[in-house]
Amino acid sequence: MPRTTPPRPVDVEALFPELAAHRGTTTRLHPRPGRPDVTDSSVGGPVLWPSDEPWPVCTEPHEHARGERPADIRRRRRILADAWLRDPNSGPTDAERQELGALDDEHVVAGSAADDPLPMICVAQLYRRDVPDLPAGPDGRDLLQVFWCPFDAHGPTGYGMLIDLRWRRSADVTDLLTAPPQPQVVGFDGYVPEPCVLHPERVTTYPFAGLLPDGLRARIDAWEEALEKQAEESEADDEPDPVGYQYDLSIPPGWRAGGFASWHTTDPAPMTCRACAAPMHLLLTVDSSEWDGGSGSWKPLEERDLATHLHARPTEVTVGRWGELNIFACPDDPGHPHDWSIQ
Ligand SMILES: [Zn+2]
Ligand SMILES: [Zn+2]
Description:
Elements: H1 12-15, E1 24-28, E2 32-33, E3 42-43, E4 57-58, E5 66-67, H2 70-86, H3 94-103, E6 107-108, E7 118-119, E8 121-127, E9 143-148, E10 163-168, E11 196-197, E12 201-205, H4 214-233, H5 245-250, E13 256-257, E14 281-287, E15 324-329, E16 339-342
Antiparallel strand pairs: 1-12, 1-13, 2-11, 3-8, 3-11, 4-7, 5-6, 8-9, 9-10, 13-14, 14-15, 15-16
Helix pairs in contact: 2-3
The structure holds zinc ion (2 copies).
């Protein structure tokens, strides 16, 4: 079943014709639980990886012997999902709560040293044929594989993420690695994705308001303020929230490739390539939810009737404080190093 973004509540280019010059496209990935194959684009699915190439590992020295076991995390999610679907009022039974308590336990991997290399988790693989807004990789490579270390323990703060992106030519992989190494424990359950198939859909998008020219941004602000005032003065109790540029018209929520980054928690930061100083482009957004109360207008037509909160987190991935991870790439040379921002 495809996933279709509903028409936007207003035609924003009819209101602000100069926005046409800033129009872009992004591909919403619409991940949904499923059984992807190595030849599919997926989140948390099996990875097309050659048997003779070393699996990506984290080599930053940090404690990684203590954490939750991925199998326990998946079991906990299954119990909770089944329980809340069965009984939306009270959720898990007492027996289930007891099991959930045990699944929360931390485990210690015996004999694991901080400087042992730690296998990374492949969070997503994207074939360019499936994702129109995914640029070509270096030397025309067609498959992007995104890895991360499952601990918040990197960089100058000692609490940062570590991400590793690999591009490959899928036709070159003939002998598959069938049982990739996995971390025995993880520092945070949000790093463990549920297997999801993708339903890519290309949609129109516009830049974050703070990056539009001042005059245009001021007119959009004034229009939003007038709508808010109108809503406040309205007598109706069930009046929906007024339409807004950020939530309804510019950048869709959820996992997506290409388009524009949102800067709703920090001020916009210039992302420039470390190798050539070119302004970088958004490559991929990893989001903690596909929609929320404020961005419900993007919920696909096919899923309009699903309970908003029960179905908002198909991948179970969490980034930052329920935020999103934006990964940037150099537009001039896809082999130049990537960079990222968390919002
Ligand atoms: Zn690490
Ligand atoms: Zn560059």
